[in-house]
Amino acid sequence: MNPRAVFPFRTLLLRLLLVLPGIVLTVALTVALAAHGPDANGSPSDGADELTKDSAGEVNLAGDGWELELLECLPGETACAENLARMKSQGADKVTSPIPVSVPENLHGRFAWVHGRAVLRRSLNLDSDAELLSISDPAILVGGVGSVDTLRINGVVVGATGSAVDPQADRFASAWNTVRFYRIPANLLRPGRNTIEIEFWAVNVKAGLHRGPVLLGSHAALRSDYLWHRLLYQKVLYAQTVLLLFGLLYFLSGLRKYDREDGFHFMAIVFLGHLVHSLYFLELPIGGLSHLLFLKIQWFSLAIGMQCASHFFWRVARLPSRLLDGIAVVVISGGLIVVAFAETYEQYYWFVACQQAAMCVAAVHSVIYSLQRRHLAKPERLGAVFLGIGVIALPAFMADAALRFYLHNYSWLFHYLMIGNIVGVFNVSVSTLFAWKIRAEGYRKQVGEERVRIAREVHDTVGSHLTEIVLQSDSLRGDSEGDASRVQERADAVRGLARSSLERIRDIVGMLSAADEDRETESLADYIRSHAGRISSMQRYTVALDLFESARRAAPGLDSVELSLEQTMHLKRIYAEWMSNTLRHSRPRNLRIALAARAGRVSLRVADDGTGLSWRGEKLHSGLTNMAERTEILGGRVRSLRFARGSVFICRVPLRVE
Q: Do 522-658 and 52-233 have the same topology in CATH?
């Protein structure tokens, strides 16, 4: 199929419009997050009592001056319990020694074993800050805390996000991605030393105060920052869940229809898996389900969704590979290992990091594989689309793997790239559905052409044979009282024509086009010679043949020139149709049939002394139309010239040299 026929230029514009929003969204959000990221709110303070204020009077609490104190570990977290015991042994009165830290920072980057309850604490001196103390409606903005927190100022609870339903049973409503914005009660901030404490449970890959800003100021001044960060870090990711739910319903509603095309039965699983994973962003109570088990389920769902998406692209682009299938089995098996053998959070995050690294390797291999075989993709343009999705998916996998190995602190990068990936999946879906439409139109056209071909075959072959049968029968009736041997000869000729017609009808009903061409083993000259012999046997017509004889005398090397199977088939049908018309309507007595090859063309001439017909190759009735169409297929010309003493039929087509 011609690629331009599958995706004409106007559909490229449509696909561009589908892809651009995802690309623009990803780039815009990346730039916005880089400009307003965790450390983009002024220079961090360098000490407990040094405060940095911006032009709006907001105090930036990010930077040094914070202390981490581990309070307790979750059951089964051996590494955490060992470190907690060691820290208690080093502290006064068996109390853990505070560890100086800087915020925002993912504490798992430094303390991968922290899985339990801890507190971040900072002191600030407001003796010299009359402006801050005079604020009537103070508030504090915290970008993100992993995963459940309670914020206190001077021992008074200011706000809490998420919930520790039952820590001993590992039941949490995690809110690691939620932006915190709490009002501070009036007169809670006082002159002198004030203490800010953020008590949290670390149960996600992001632990502690992992994302900025950390601002103290008036509620009105901080509200715009809060709304902006909530849009970037929360609402857009909620939109991902809505988009995935729409995609799931979309594919479920038409699953039977899409399942007819190889690869589309994966799509419902793809969107279901990513939908389950997107619940990771929501502050959901999981009921009696432990948080660790929920993490295992959402990760396994993501692994299955990713591999099904890859299979979808491979099947749609017609790029099967046993190696790629093997990679999918390994990745899914790795997900099962995570679910079955990761008994603690530390084991879970280590297994997941390794598996995500394996997914990166698989994605790299997929991109290289598609690059090497993009010319084999069917429909042709879908190979390029698959490669484009791979270019989006690969950075997403790599960003997540780097996050899980604590090489960066930008969790949003993976999720925004995945939004672009989802948009790309919809783009491929729409493009493929359009390709189906084009293919269906092509199939309908082919069916119509096949019907015309069958009708032409019936008319040109069976009709021609039936005409001869009628003529032979008439001749047989006139000679019924004559020579018995002649009667038997003509009866055999009628029987042979009838059998030939029956065989041809069977061929047409079988619609074996390739086999039809393969059966055209008889040369055009032999076919004409056989037909002329049958006509001569009627003793009504005198037939003279010149089948390449004149051409051979002029060019002795003509034996090396042969007609192709297609030329032979069509010229046989043209000859049979014209002879049928001539014998039925022109009532000739003498015929001269000639085949010649010269100047790169082969010509078929039939001269007769009957009433004849003048015809310039127009498509008139079915017989003449069939001859004209067959000649057009061969790239030739056909016509008939009428004279006072008869007519001459001429058909010329280009000659192919074998």
A: no
| Range in 62-66, 111-115, 466-470 the model is least confident about | 466-470
List the end-to-end C-alpha distance of the chain, in Å, as a whole number. Answer: 27
With contact defined as beta carbons under 8 Å apart, do 39 and 212 qualify? yes
| Rg of the chain taking only CA atoms, in angstroms | 42
Q: CA separation (Å) from 97 to 85, 90, 116, 155, 168?
A: 11, 7, 16, 20, 24
Whether the pLDDT of residue 1 is over 60: the answer is: no
Tens of pLDDT, residues 190-214 = 888 899 999 999 998 889 999 989 9
Top-confidence residue, 50 or 409: 409
- The ranges assigned to domains in the chain are 1-35+410-519, 52-233, 522-658
Six-digit token string for 49 = 């009592």
- The string of DSSP codes covering 12-69 is HHHHHHHHHHHHHHHHHHHHHHHHTSTT-SSPPBSSSS--EE-TTS-EE--EEEEEEE
Which tokens sit at 273? 């898996």
Q: Count Cβ atoms below 10 Å from residue 452 Cβ, excluding itself.
A: 13
Dihedrals phi, psi of 99, to nearest 5 degrees = -110, 125
**Comparing 56 with 490, which gets the higher pLDDT?**
490
- CATH of the domain spanning 52-233: 2.60.120.260
Q: Could you tell me the pLDDT band of residue 403, with boundaries at 50, 70 and 90? A: confident
pTM: 0.62
Query: What's the Cα-to-Cα distance from 289 to each of 292, 301, 362, 611, rounded to whole Å?
Result: 8, 16, 32, 96
CB atoms within 10 A of CB 347: 17
> Does the pLDDT value for residue 139 go beyond 80?
yes
* Residue spans of beta strands (DSSP E) within 241-311: none
Non-local (6+) Cβ contacts of 227 within 8 A are none
Place of tokens 């309507």: 585
Task: Please compute the mean of the pLDDT values over residues 583-592 and round it to a whole number.
Answer: 87
- What are the CA-CA distances from residue 436 to residues 164, 247, 387 (Å)? 52, 19, 20
Provide CB contacts within 8 A for 267, sequence distance 6+. 247, 251, 258, 308, 312, 425, 429
In sequence order, which residues have a C-beta less than 8 Å from that of residue 278 and are 6 or more positions away? 237, 240, 241, 244
Q: Which CATH number fits domain 522-658: 3.40.50.2300, 3.40.50.620, 3.40.630.30, 3.30.565.10?
A: 3.30.565.10
Judge whether residue 595 has pLDDT over 60. Answer: yes
What is the phi-psi region of residue 619: left when phi exceeds 0, alpha when psi lies from -120 to 50, beta otherwise?
Answer: beta
pLDDT the model gives residue 559: 47
